[in-house]
Amino acid sequence: MSRLRRMAAPLVLAVGGGLFAAAPAAEAAPAACDTTSTPYTYVVTYQPGTRESAVDRELAAKCGTKVAYYAEIGVAIASSRTADFQQKIGVYRAYSGAKDVASQGGAAAARSRGAVRTLEDTRSVAAAGDLAAQQWDMKAIHAPEANKIYQGSRAVTVGVLDSGIEATHPALRTAVDARSSAGCVTGAPDLSPASWAPTTSDHGTHVAGTIAGKDPAAGFTGVAPGVRLASVKVINDEGYIFPESAVCGFVWAARHGFAVTNNSYYIDPGLFYCPKQPGDAAAFEAVRRAIDFSTRRGVLNVAAAGNDSLDLTNQTTDKNRPHPVDSSCAILPGMADGVVTVSSVGYAGTKSGFSNYGRIDVTAPGGDFGQTPPEGAGPACPLSTVVGGQYGEKCGTSMAAPHAAGVAALIASRHRGIAPRLLAQLLESEADVVKCAATEPACTGPAKNNTFYGHGLVDALDAVR
């Protein structure tokens, strides 16, 4: 599993505002707050357990409005129109991803997000017919053999933190649990079906089909078709996933007893969040606490490694934002403590050209445009569910991660109530070894734990035997 060194907790009255600085007991309201400028949403950190009334007082005194407050982790979601709201709260305690994107420094993030969306666009829609023969990705991890033995338990829920799931899709209509689904785009959970349905992206629907889709009429089957899915929408209509949405999603998963979550994204504007830098520190800490809370509540979080062909352990700059990067910085959530990070392989079983590497736990099929299957074996990118009740191909580590999440769900079904760390260990120990090839000089490490493939290719059959 990935390990990320945690920050030591600063003093309550630490210079710069301190991540754990408590709200003042009382403070006079300002003479006037900006009521006309564009509002932005912020994550704001408090000492865990801080009373909500104290949070309300500080936010009101500093021209903010509470959107949500997660007392268990001491993280508030706030909205403010005031340009210096972050400075009023403390630059190490508050951060707005949307405000960062709107600034000049966010232009690169917008370009990067556009490139990611292009890579993971649906490249083609499958014609009607038996799709089983085209699911080379499922064959690679022995999912068809596993499905004959065990398809998973309805008592196990996998949260798909993504762009929403089309719950009416023929392969998903019996899998999606509306009672466990929520929209988290604003940072506060919204239980209305419209809030967790897809609008501008079929990304989450594709991920969901890989995990637990099943459509006998089309011959399509996912990794663990017997488990439940929860749609937790964290991606907004512009394609961004801001820290407040991720915090809401992880806390929702914790509170609703999910066994596994799939996180095929990085938190925007990204790429790297650095715990020693203003703004970044608040986002880093808020997300870290939410992930840690979910892990303590029994959730194994699985995440995509990313599609930038980067060595995650050897970066000094951030292509999305102009700030220095060192070993304390991380792409979130994939590099956070306790999260299983998944790289991608193509049809030939070697690392996809786009896949990040360096800090990897396991690998799984995500496709590769240069690894073309033979005629009749399917497209170069994994085939799965897309909106409109159809099936289409997408490439990316976003497609690799749900294969691993599906295998984890099978293990969780076999071992009910298993602790997340033990579940991750089983996922890793049962993976098939993928050695570094002589033609892969950047791949280093032993066969069972290297920088390209981690502990190996996830194996669904081993998970159920």
UniProtKB/TrEMBL annotation:
<feature type="active site" description="Charge relay system">
    <location>
        <position position="203"/>
    </location>
</feature>
<dbReference type="InterPro" id="IPR000209">
    <property type="entry name" value="Peptidase_S8/S53_dom"/>
</dbReference>
<keyword id="KW-0732">Signal</keyword>
<keyword id="KW-0645">Protease</keyword>
<feature type="active site" description="Charge relay system">
    <location>
        <position position="162"/>
    </location>
</feature>
<feature type="domain" description="Peptidase S8/S53">
    <location>
        <begin position="154"/>
        <end position="456"/>
    </location>
</feature>
<feature type="signal peptide">
    <location>
        <begin position="1"/>
        <end position="28"/>
    </location>
</feature>
<keyword id="KW-0720">Serine protease</keyword>
<protein>
    <submittedName>
        <fullName>Subtilase family protein</fullName>
    </submittedName>
</protein>
<dbReference type="InterPro" id="IPR022398">
    <property type="entry name" value="Peptidase_S8_His-AS"/>
</dbReference>
<comment type="similarity">
    <text>Belongs to the peptidase S8 family.</text>
</comment>
<dbReference type="GO" id="GO:0006508">
    <property type="term" value="P:proteolysis"/>
</dbReference>
<dbReference type="InterPro" id="IPR036852">
    <property type="entry name" value="Peptidase_S8/S53_dom_sf"/>
</dbReference>
<dbReference type="InterPro" id="IPR023827">
    <property type="entry name" value="Peptidase_S8_Asp-AS"/>
</dbReference>
<dbReference type="InterPro" id="IPR015500">
    <property type="entry name" value="Peptidase_S8_subtilisin-rel"/>
</dbReference>
<dbReference type="InterPro" id="IPR023828">
    <property type="entry name" value="Peptidase_S8_Ser-AS"/>
</dbReference>
<dbReference type="Pfam" id="PF00082">
    <property type="entry name" value="Peptidase_S8"/>
</dbReference>
<dbReference type="GO" id="GO:0004252">
    <property type="term" value="F:serine-type endopeptidase activity"/>
</dbReference>
<feature type="active site" description="Charge relay system">
    <location>
        <position position="398"/>
    </location>
</feature>
<dbReference type="InterPro" id="IPR050131">
    <property type="entry name" value="Peptidase_S8_subtilisin-like"/>
</dbReference>
<keyword id="KW-0378">Hydrolase</keyword>
